[in-house]
Design goal:
The complex is a heterodimer of chains A (about 675) and B (about 260). With about 675 residues, chain A is mainly alpha-helical. Chain A has helices at about 15-40, 50-65, 65-70, 75-100, 110-140, 150-175, 185-190, 195-220, 225-240, 250-255, 280-290, 295-300, 300-305, 310-325, 355-360, 365-380, 385-400, 420-425, 435-440, 445-455, 475-480, 480-500, 510-520, 530-540, 570-575, 615-625, 635-650, 660-665; strands at about 430-435, 460-465, 505, 525-530, 550-555, 580-585, 630-635, 655-660. The chains are: A mainly alpha (about 675), B alpha/beta (about 260).
């Protein structure tokens, strides 16, 4: 007889094992069905279409594990070891069954290859588990929680693998096959075992190992191990939904769902709102359900980082818990979960900066979950903070979120000779959409003034809407006021079509994002001003003065320009093209940039949401550490926040906050203006 | 007790939160010109919020009464969207610029026409003229007890228990129903009314009774317009911020003293 393994050596009835295996698989299937039922019940009804491209991306995400590796090499390798070890052993065990019952092909060389593969699989799994335990309990990586489940799951797997090797050692010690050394770990273990003990203890150990292994399969849907199934599903749903990394905060079907007049309650109109009760789609729920609390989102969340009472992970966990309780017939089937009390203020912390999406291994946009919760709170009406309530009223009544009138929107153009598109009817290259904050706030008006001066210098024809300029509605959108956003959107679309506007350039990354991604009906092009500057420099239409002096500047990425719309390089290219300007980067830059704290409606929220530190102050300290003289940004909200933080920290003398336009204008040849 | 029938009096006024540039005072015509959308007077919104919370706790029915020369049901429908059950508009050309007693008189006629009620809530004062009289006069005309400046209102058996603001805190006052309570902002802002909710409500026809002098069987002679003696523009509130530069504290202090001297 050549190299081979007897499957049920010394083990009584094989059928008992298969009965138990069937039970384990049954539990796995029933549990998984419960998850699926939850997904279907708590999401908007929609079809999941088959997409080859999505499948391809899903497979690459699953097998390459790049999302897990991204930015977290140690964790990524740890996960890869466990993943591949687990996969090899699972497939190996399946092959063994095929060999036993269908065709005996594992003989001779193929058996030896099989044994070696299983040894390696077991070893890397073992290594991965030990590393995971070390990271969580020895290194105590801060983002990792240490709940009972977190210890139990890896220890369980550790015992399964360890007992597997010991079993093999016993078998080899007692059978002493001549090919034993191919199973190098088992053979090594065999050296410690006397054949007599081996033979008598083998059946007990075998059943122990078998029960633990089958149990492990059975508990997958009932523990955080569900991510084994949930994560691939989340990947597929993420890739197949049209919502890509350019995140959309809520599904458009929500705002556009037709109101069913027949179902409207006679007095209150309540029933008409039923459609808005579940603003979640399948991809959202798959992500919530696949979340295994790795805490990467908490690590990068600027709000959590400032010590505020918000952590994306906890929010997601509370959300999925609530969904289980609300939508599952059998309640929450997951063991080790408990109710979490979430303060009603919690959803108002998030700045929607999308840092969480950047790092989440399952593409989870926690900020979208927050916005969806806000949508519900806005509809209920009672959980809306007073300041937000007032801001939305102002936005509705006065077309801006500030305590100002629409008629103030043209005030900055006084004495500047800026063509008004509403009056002159002139042909222009584009409409400069100044935006509420840039138009109204005294500091940020400098953005508009400098941009206009640059455009004039470059000989670009443009115009503004002046007093008629509406609000793009983005603030309403991020705080979950879906209806108000839709109204503002229709308003903008009407106005743009009335004045035949085909190209729009915005000051604010927020208006830019809204027009670009949240106005699916638009028939105009939209750019952020940084793209225009880059283009003008590229065309040689902007001439910089040569300057002997060298100035170090650092650049703060606005979230809605950078992370949300992937415009990282263009503003930097503009900065680098200015003679005498040297760009130094902060620790957090590009996709890892830190939010200034103004997004998600936070600009109009009170101090009661603040934590130990202010996000803007954290950012400004990082900027100061670069040693730069100027802190450049490309968003009016960032400019206000950063400049304010420079003042409160007393850094004004060392570091100045400036808009990219101001920097460019101050470096222009023939800069015949008095702005700088 | 049975579920209370609550009446909330809500006045429609030009937005008192309107940006300053939208407000001007015409001294000759004795007119404040506000170029701003009409809203419900904020204290009346507080009163409505108090009513809705009572309804959420013990049930009941809320009827909103709004009175004026011309009352917009678009503005007032917000009360229904927020949680009121019925809306009655008191509209008549004769209702323009009435004095507080006359307003209270019209409201009392309307409330008598409604008939049954347990609790009447009004704002502590209107957000435009800030007279703060209508609520209390209304209670007198109806012959029911009244409590002013409520920061919290609870229904207990057949009485209302109110935390009434006083300059150094609050008193807890109880009155038998029916009673009238004027509500202060400490009660809390009216819950947010989402636009989708509002739009859904605006799209569907609901019956909103409109009562004028005829329906209320009032004679116009019984109503007195308010006599405005004088109207002054608000004082010039512009501020200027100057940093006093100087090499030493003494020099700065000297310059500061010079500024004070000049201003005196």
């Amino acid at each position: 007889m050549g190299p081979e393994r007897e499957l049920f050596w010394k083990i009584g009835p094989g059928w008992l094992f298969y009965a138990l295996a069937a039970l384990a698989v049954g539990l796995l299937l029933v549990g998984t069905a419960a998850h699926l039922q939850l997904w279907m019940k708590s999401s908007l009804k929609g079809k999941v279409a088959f997409s080859r491209e999505a499948l391809k991306q899903t497979l690459s995400d699953v097998f390459l594990g790049l999302r897990v590796l991204k930015g977290e090499v140690a964790a990524g390798i740890m996960h890869a070891l466990i993943f591949w070890g687990f996969l090899v052993l699972t497939i190996g065990t399946a092959i063994l069954l095929v060999h036993e019952h269908l065709s005996s092909f594992l003989v001779g060389t193929s058996h030896l290859a099989f044994e070696v593969a299983m040894e390696i699989g077991g070893l890397i799994l073992l290594g991965g588990i030990l590393w995971a335990l070390v990271r969580r309990y020895v290194q105590r990586v801060p983002r990792l929680e240490r709940r009972l489940e977190d210890a139990l799951v890896p220890l369980w797997l550790l015992v399964v693998v360890g007992s597997g090797f010991i079993l093999e050692g016993i078998r080899l010690a007692s059978q002493k096959p001549e090919w034993a050394n191919w199973s190098f770990v088992g053979a090594w273990a065999a050296g410690f075992i006397s054949p007599g003990i081996a033979e008598s203890s083998y059946p007990y150990l075998w059943w122990g190992h078998a029960l633990l292994s089958l149990g492990f399969v059975a508990v997958i849907p009932f523990t955080k191990l569900f991510h084994i199934l949930g994560a691939p599903a989340a990947y597929y749903l993420h890739h197949s939904s049209e919502v890509s990394i350019k995140a959309s905060l809520f599904s458009r079907d929500l705002a556009q769902a037709p109101v069913n007049e027949d179902e409207v309650a006679p007095e209150t109109g309540e029933a008409a709102l039923d459609f808005a009760e579940t603003p979640l789609n399948l991809a959202d729920i798959a992500f919530y359900d696949a979340c295994m609390r790795c805490g990467r989102c908490v690590q990068v969340c600027p709000s959590a980082g400032a010590g505020e009472a918000f952590a994306p992970r906890d929010f997601i966990q509370a959300t999925i818990r609530a969904l289980w309780k609300e939508h599952s017939r059998v309640g929450d089937i997951r063991l080790f979960t408990k109710d979490q009390v979430i303060d009603p203020k919690v959803p108002w912390h998030c700045t929607t900066c999308a840092a969480c999406l950047e790092v989440c291994p399952v593409y989870g946009a926690a900020f979208e979950a927050v916005s969806k919760k806000r949508t519900t709170l806005i509809l209920e009406g009672t959980g809306v903070p007073d300041l937000m309530n007032q801001t939305l009223e102002r936005l509705f009544n006065y077309e801006n979120p500030w305590v100002s009138s629409k008629r103030e929107k043209a005030a900055w153009t006084k004495d500047l000779d800026i063509p008004a598109l509403t009056k002159d009817g002139k042909e222009v290259d584009f409409c400069y959409f100044v935006g509420c904050t840039t138009s109204i706030d005294a500091r940020t008006q400098a953005i508009a003034k400098s941009f206009s001066s640059i455009l004039k210098h470059a000989g670009v024809s443009f115009g503004v809407l002046g007093e008629k300029e509406p609000c793009c509605g983005d603030i309403a959108r991020v705080v979950g006021e879906v209806g108000l956003f839709e109204e503002k959107k229709m308003n903008c679309l009407d106005l743009f079509s009335r004045y035949d506007i085909k190209e729009v350039v915005t000051s604010s990354p927020h208006c830019f994002h809204a027009f670009l991604n949240e106005y699916p009906e638009k028939n105009f092009g939209v750019r952020h001003y940084s793209l225009v500057l880059k283009e003008l420099i590229g065309q040689g239409r902007i001439r910089f003065k040569t300057n002997g002096k060298r100035t170090a500047v650092t650049y703060h990425d606005p979230c809605y320009l950078g992370r949300h719309n992937r415009i990282f390089e263009e503003p930097r290219e503009v900065i680098r093209s200015i003679p005498g300007i040297q760009l130094v980067e902060m620790d957090h830059h590009g996709a890892d940039s830190l939010c200034c704290g103004a997004g998600g409606g936070r600009m109009w929220q009170g101090k009661e949401l603040d934590g130990e530190a202010r996000m803007s102050e954290i950012r400004v300290r990082e900027a100061r550490a670069t040693g730069a003289e100027l802190l450049i940004t490309a968003c009016p909200l960032c400019l206000i926040m950063l400049e304010d933080a420079l003042k409160t920290l007393g850094f004004e003398k060392e570091l100045r906050a400036m808009d990219l336009n101001e920097l460019v204008l101050s470096s222009l040849e023939l800069a015949g203006n008095n702005l700088m | 007790m049975k579920e209370p029938k609550i009446i909330v009096c809500a006045k429609q006024i030009p937005d008192p939160e309107a940006p300053f540039s939208n407000v001007s005072v015409n001294v000759e015509k004795k007119e404040v010109v506000v170029d701003a959308p009409d809203v419900i007077s904020p204290y009346d919104e507080n009163a409505l919020e108090a009513a809705i919370r009572i309804k959420e706790e013990v049930g009941g029915k809320i009827t909103v009464l709004s009175m004026g020369r011309k009352v917009s049901d678009t503005v007032l429908r917000k009360t229904v969207a927020a949680g009121a059950d019925a809306l009655i508009l008191l509209e008549d050309a004769a209702f323009e610029r009435l004095d507080s007693r006359s307003i209270a008189f019209v409201l009392s006629s309307a409330i008598k026409k409604i008939g049954e009620y347990d609790l009447i809530l009004t704002g502590r004062q209107a957000g435009d003229w800030d007279s703060g009289q209508v609520g209390l006069i209304l209670a007198e005309l109806l012959g029911i007890p009244s409590i002013s400046l409520a920061r919290s209102i609870k229904i207990k058996d057949d009485s209302v228990v109110v935390e009434k603001l006083v300059p150094v805190g609050y008193e807890v006052v109880e009155a038998e129903l029916p009673a009238l309570v004027t509500v202060s902002n400490e009660v809390g802002e009216l819950r947010y009314v989402a636009r989708t909710k509002m739009m859904a409500l605006l799209r569907r026809p609901i019956s909103i009774p409109k009562w004028g002098t005829k329906q209320l069987e009032l004679s116009v002679e019984a109503l007195n317009p308010v006599q405005l003696m004088e109207l002054c523009p608000p004082p010039d509130m512009r501020r200027e911020c100057v940093f006093i530069e100087g090499a030493s504290s003494d020099e700065k202090a000297g310059k500061l003293a010079a500024v004070f001297k000049e201003l005196r």
